[in-house]
Amino acid sequence: MATRADPVPSGDDPDDHHSLDDDERSELAELRVRMRRHRVRSFFSALLITLAAVLAPLSAVSVWVADEIADTDRYVATVAPLASDPDVQAAITAQVTDAVMKKIDLNSLLSNVAPSDRPDLESALGALSDPLNSGLEGFVHQTVASFVASDAFARIWTQLNRQAHAAFVGALTGDSNTAVQVRGDTVTLDLAPVVDQVKNQLAGGGLGVASVIPTVHTDFTLAKSEDIKNVRTGFRILELAGNWLPLVTVVLAVGGVLLAVHRRRAVVTTALAVAVAVAVLGIGLTVFRVVYLNHLPGAANERAAGAVYDQLVRFLRLTIRVVFVLGVVVALGAWLSGQGRWAQWVRGVWESGIAAFRLGLGITSTGAVGRWVRRYRHVLQWAVVAVAVIVMFVWSYPTPVVILCIAIVAVIALAVIEFLDDRRQPPAARVTSP
């Protein structure tokens, strides 16, 4: 007896529909509608997840700009440790020594000698002038180095950076209440008060010849006005977006996951995409450091400039590490909770290990507590996850170590729940490799 094979509808050949009954046609139409909806959902899910991954590095930069670069107190607290950095101290010592030696030499020291005695004294010094100048420079260098290593210099360093930061942000934001002036195409800052403070501190630290340094009005170039015009808009946008862009990124990521047909897989994809995106930003910071140092003027101290750069981007690098670790932890957690073969095998090892541990302790039942835990097992597990997420978000400035510690504590809490659960399991259950 011949049997009619089930047709494979293509959706294009009208002859296919003649071999289907009404119920099959209805089911096929519903299936097609569902597939179209799935395709639309998958498209928008992928779009939102991609936007979240792209915005993740920008969110890290915006938070860095708003909390670190635009905030004077935070900026000063960041650069304060540089006052004790050996490379920075060496660079400042050399620069200050050169500036002092341009104003102090043998001629300036002989200025107080009576005019009638100067020719004889200069003739007597004769060939000793060069060694004396060298000895004077060594004395000045040693005195400046001692001062730069003191607490007095650390206070001046903080004050100078506070003034410089206020001027820089004022130039970027267009604030006219700062000491910044635009002359032609150059943004300048008058350093006369800074020179006076440094001179007084050097004199008070034992370098008496520093008192002969006159008041110097000098303009320190912060940036070209064209450069300020180019970066001002971007700076303001990042500063304003500092508090909102991370929230928008999270909303986009959550929306992408909720729209996805396979949500657990979407969580893994989103977490890994964000982790990779911020990792690329971290690599970019390292590459830019090399480019930045290679384009320094020849007279600049490369090691000191590198120390300053590393300190300025320290908070941004920390944020990158936190987001990267968090992304990996979330992706791992979502994967382990799935129904994949390897995920089930890992969970089997976990459950069998805890069961064997209970058996080793001689505990066969945890009584009423075990029955209660068994009843509310999933609620307790989700409660642990929720508490871990809340702790992470309310932590002021979490570090990668903090994220890992929160994850470890959550794993321990889940292990306790598994230990107390009294559902029947063979204590020596065999775990087969997937």
What do you see in this structure?
- By secondary structure, the protein is mainly alpha-helical.
- It has 2 domains: 77-217, no CATH class; 241-420.
- 72% of the residues lie in helices and 3% in strands.
- The chain is built from 18 helices and 3 strands.
- It has helices at residues 15-18, 22-69, 72-79, 86-103, 106-109, 118-125, 129-148, 151-173, 192-204, 225-241, 245-259, 263-294, 302-312, 314-336, 341-360, 367-375, 377-394, 400-420, and strands spanning 180-183, 186-190, 219-224.
- Helix 3 crosses helix 8 (151-173) and helix 8 (151-173) packs antiparallel against helix 9 (192-204).
Features:
membrane; mainly alpha; 18 helices; three-stranded antiparallel β-sheet; transmembrane helix; 434 residues; disordered C terminus; 2 domains; transmembrane; single chain; disordered N terminus
At a glance:
The chain has 434 residues and is mainly α. It has helices spanning 15-18, 22-69, 72-79, 86-103, 106-109, 118-125, 129-148, 151-173, 192-204, 225-241, 245-259, 263-294, 302-312, 314-336, 341-360, 367-375, 377-394, 400-420, and strands at 180-183, 186-190, 219-224.
> Structural class of the helices, strands and pairings?
mainly alpha
Overall number of domains? 2
- Percent of residues in helices: over 70%
Low-confidence stretches: 1-5, 7-11, 124-129, 218-225, 425-433
Q: If helices are DSSP runs of H or I spanning 4 or more residues, what is the number of helices? A: 18
How far is the N terminus from the C terminus? 44 Å
Element-by-element helix/strand order: HHHHHHHHEEHEHHHHHHHHH
Task: Using the alpha-carbon principal axes, give the shape.
Answer: elongated
Measured by DSSP, the beta-strand proportion falls in under 5%
The averaged pLDDT comes out at 76
Oligomer: single chain
How many strands in all?
3
Q: Describe the sheet with the most strands.
A: 3 strands, antiparallel
